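Write out the 3D structure for:
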Amino acid sequence: MNPKEYSRTSLNFDVIEMRKLEKIDDLIPFKDLFILYFFTIFIVFLGIYLTLEISWLLYPLVIFFIAGRQGAFLQLIHEASHNLINQNYKVNNFFGSWLTSLIVGVNFEGYTSGHKSHHSLVSTPEEPQADSEKYVVVNFKDPKIYLLFLKDLLGITALKIFLDYGNNKSDKKFNSKANFISYKKILFLFKLSIVQLLILVLFKFNIFHYILFWLYSAMGPHMFLMRIRGIAEHGLSKQMSYIVTRPAEGIYFTRSFLTKVNTYKYSKILNVIEKLLIGSFYVHYHHEHHLNSRIPYYNLKKFHKIIKNEIINRVAVPIYEKGYFSAALKTVLVPENELTHKFY
C-alpha cells in the first residue's frame, strides 16, 4: 500500500463496530484516575521508606517508577485533550486540568493545542517541535542522542517544553495584547502553585523528598522515558531513512507495542515493566489511536482486534513491535530502491 494514501478508510473492516467503540463511558476514567492516585501515592511513600530504611542506592529505581506514574497522568491528560474523558465538556476539561495536568506541571490548554497539531501533522516537517523533538535523533550510534538523553535527565528538555506550553499559540492568534498573555500565564502558575502545594502537604513539607521524588521525576526521568516512547512510536520512518511529507505517511509509520502480534521472550514480566514505565492506559495501541483518535483508550484493544489482520496484510513495515525499548533500539536502514519497490 502507498503510504501517501494510508488511512482507516483505505482499510477493509466493520465500520459499524468501530463506531460503537467511539462511545464514551463517563465513569471509567474517574475510576482509573482514583486507582492511579492511590498507586502513585503508594509508590512514593514506599520509595521514601525503602530509601531511608534500606539504601540510597534505590533512589534511581524509585524515581523512574514514579516517573512512569507521572507518564500515566500524561496519558489521561492526552485523553482529555481529545475530549474522551466525559461527554460534558466542562467535566472533561476539569479532569484534564485540575485533576491531572496541574499535578505533573503541564499547561492543559497548551498541550491540547499542540497535540491537535501533532495528529494533523504527525512526522511531517511542520509537526510541533514539542513532539518532533522527541525523535529528532533515532540512531543510537549517533552521539547526539546521548546528549539529548543527558538534557532530558538534567531537566533542560522539560523546562523548554514547559515554557513552550505556557505560550499558547491560539491565544496569540486571537488576542495579541501582552497583558492578556501575561494574565493567562499568571493564572496557570497560580493554579499550578495551589496543586503543587497540596502535593507538598502529602510530602509533609519535606522539600528534599518533594524535589527528588516528584519534581525531578517529572523533569528528568519522565522526559527520558518520553523520548524512548517518541522514538518507538514515531521514529520508524527515520530508522528506515524514509522522508515523511504527508500526515497519512506519518500514520503509516506509527507503531504499536505489547500486543500478541509480536512479543518478548519473557513477555509477561517485560510487558508489566514497560507498561509501568511508559505504556499505561492502552497508549501502546498507538497505531490504532492515530487511525481513529475518537476511540477512548479503554476501547483501543477492541479496535486493535478488529483491524490488526487488515493492517498486517496492507502495511509493509513492522508496525507491531515487541515493546518500546526494543523498537527504539532497532536500527532499520533500507536502501531507497527497496523502499520504492516495497511501497509502490
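Confidence is low (pLDDT under 50) at residues 168-178.
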